Amino acid sequence: MAMSTTRALTGPPSDLFNPPFRTITFTSFPAVVLVSTHLRHAWTALPPTPSPTDDDVMAFIKANHALTPQQRLEQVPQNPDKDSIDTPWRERVLERWMSVFVDVSAFLQEVGPGVGHLRTWGKQGVEYSAEKGSV
């Protein structure tokens, strides 16, 4: 894969092997840039139907791709509920995100030891800590 990673070394020398923060750059992997950009837009958009399907997410991405940034601001209705994660629309969007996560996880495993690996999850598989702001 043509992704790159940058480690932020702000602490002791041990950070070289176990960095507290890692930046991943997708600029040389346009498919990941394109898909992740449209999925970010889908996450904040108002669901097109009460019971969305994967086809609805793909239709959103296709329609969103045809719009300019200004048209997106004007034409794509935004979901006023910014906090709910467990919604039918966001569950469908998250399923599409999984393909991005799998690609990035495969890349990170090639970067070096201690990166870990991604386990695909079910509904109960991801824990979010609002206090720490991390997954």
Net shape: elongated
Q: What count of helical segments does DSSP give?
A: 4
- Largest sheet, described in full? 2 strands, antiparallel
Give me the Rg, rounded.
17 Å
Arrangement of strands in the largest sheet: 1-2
Structural class by helix and strand composition: mainly alpha
| Whole-number mean pLDDT | 75
Percent in strands:
5-15%
Give the helix proportion (percent range): 40-55%
Q: Name the poorly predicted regions.
A: 123-135
Q: What's the helix-strand series?
A: EEHHHH
Terminal Cα span = 25 Å
Quantity of strands, as a count: 2
Describe this structure in words.
With 135 residues, this protein is mostly helical. The chain is 43% helix and 6% strand. Helix 1 crosses helix 2 and helix 1 (30-44) runs antiparallel to helix 4. The longest helix is centred in the last third of the chain and has 24 residues, at 88-111.
Write the layout of secondary structure elements.
Elements: E1 4-7, E2 22-25, H1 30-44, H2 54-65, H3 69-75, H4 88-111
Antiparallel strand pairs: 1-2
Summary of the model, kept short:
With 135 residues, the chain is mainly alpha-helical. The chain is built from 4 helices and 2 strands, in the order E-E-H-H-H-H.
Notable traits:
135 residues; mainly alpha; two-stranded antiparallel ribbon; 2 strands
